[in-house]
Amino acid sequence: MPLHHQVFLVLQDEIAERRYAPGEALPSEDDLAKHFRVSRVTVRAALEKLDALGLIERRQGVGTYVRELPRPKPLTVPLLDLAAQNRQIVRTTRAHVVEYGFTPAPRHVRSHFRAQPDDLFQRAVRIRYLKDRPIMQVTTYIPEAIGRQFGRKEMEGGSLHTILRRLGIAFASGEQVVTAAAADPVVAERLNVAIGAPLLKVVRMHFDGMGRLIQHFELLAPPTTYELRMPLKAY
Predict the structure, then answer these.
(1) What count of Cα atoms within 13 Å lies in the side-chain half-sphere of residue 45?
(2) Helical H segments across 75-233, by residue range
(3) pTM above 0.85, yes or no
(4) Whether residue 224 is found in the same domain as residue 114
(5) Which of 37, 82, 124, 178 has a CA 20 to 30 Å removed from the CA of 24?
(6) d(CA 122, CA 120)
(7) Residue 97: in which H helix or E strand, if any?
(8) Residues 109-147: tens digit of each pLDDT
């Protein structure tokens, strides 16, 4: 990734997270060049991209200032109810399939399914958009026997949960683990964040009524676009 684009992504994240408040001046080109250890030409190219997106205002002889822009609210979903999470995501976002195929699963996924190294799974990677803004990447693994019953076209824009339900496959129980991850170069480009940016990581395992694992689900999202909320009661 070009250096100027890396600088652009970092500054864009910092503006989105309000590390620089609207109306506040950014550091000078010299200071930014020293901070990022790049040339002024590189910094200038990054600022031009921010300017083109309307995120900053460059005032001749004065400096560069953050524009006052409406900040979209993050998608908020309940932490405890998996069904409610799915309904909220499907209702408010649209999906685009960026990777699809049948492949052996990586070791950590395979271990959950108790599968052999050469067992095939349907693997799909989708980016979900809130309006036109990419807010999350979702990667799913489904056993081949189930995955062969539908294709990429059905998954485009739709809900995998709904597809499986139409096939008579119901989720009877599930387990969810919430941790964090750093954006790798591929995910960073897809979600328009800086390489290494912190991401919320949600891993789910969905089981059918017989206790069989049906789906391994992994969600990656910037905390500025997606949050999980859990109500607390007195005890």
Answers:
(1) 11
(2) 82-92, 107-113, 144-147, 152-155, 160-166, 185-191
(3) no
(4) yes
(5) 37
(6) 7
(7) strand 94-104
(8) 998 999 999 999 999 999 999 888 899 999 999 999 999
